Amino acid sequence: MTPSNLGLQVAEERGPDQSISRLPTARTAFVGRTLRGPVNRPVFIKSFAEFQHVFGGLWQPSLLGYAIEQFFDNGGREALIVRVVNGARSATLTISDNAAGSPQTAALVGVGVVRAASSVQLTASPNPSTFGESVTFTAHVSTAASVTPTGTVTFTEGSTALGAASVDATGTATLSSTSLHGGAHEITATYSGDAHLLGSSATVVQTVNAAPTTITARPAQVVVQVPGPSVLRLSARLSVTGSGVPIAGQPVSMRINGNTVCTATTATDGVATCTAPLSFLLAVTLHGYTASYPGSPDYQPATDHAGLLG
Known about the structure:
Blueprint: E1 28-32, E2 43-45, H1 48-55, H2 64-73, E3 79-83, E4 90-95, E5 104-109, E6 119-125, E7 129-130, E8 135-142, E9 152-157, E10 160-166, E11 172-177, E12 183-191, E13 200-209, E14 213-223, E15 231-240, E16 251-256, E17 259-265, E18 271-277, H3 281-287, E19 289-293, E20 302-306
Parallel strand pairs: 1-3, 7-13
Antiparallel strand pairs: 2-3, 4-5, 6-8, 8-11, 9-10, 9-12, 12-13, 14-15, 15-18, 16-17, 16-19, 19-20
């Protein structure tokens, strides 16, 4: 049986619009590391652009910025950001909404800072060098993180500190030294790290060659002593070749006919003086004498010959 068989007429009528009410957007709290911004204090933001302005935007060492970007890209409207640095931090925030018992208080605990890795490249110039020459050590600190390294670099040889230097805006620290003696030296540059980066170190072997020397033998002199025996005075001056800087505290031996007749140590003016028996007068007159410096790790050996003062 149909409605028409009963004498009924069916008609559809449109009722009033009854849209579903939209629930208020929830506030989401984020805790973590950011490039900049206030620390341990909840900050309310309404867009990723505002997050960029306050906290610096995306930052590779932390996933927080990426999470907030996705939050707003997927319809999020309100976020509370708590920045933490240098270890685990906690903060408390109050969330007001239209729910029963509002406002609500929530305690937030950050997971702390996981600093990014760094690396050091160390070079020395000149290398090899000559004893007494200034050597410049250059340490360059780098990282894959989008931060500029700060802090200091300490330069050492074993347990001996050579000095320290601050890292500049290019991540570079330099130190110059003239204190290295002849031989091979393992120099280490140790980066201190900073709030965003872990420390690191690098090593370079610096070779220091002995400096060339010049010894100048002076003519032998007959010294008549009354009372006492007369002697031959033998002397020679030791210096750095080229500069002529005197070398003090070094041993010099005097030989006549291949025999060592006396030895002396150079004074502050580089001169070594000693006396030989007058019995060598004839040999010195005929053949002269030789002043000889054996050398050291810092200085090369040298010899010279002179006769009798006439």
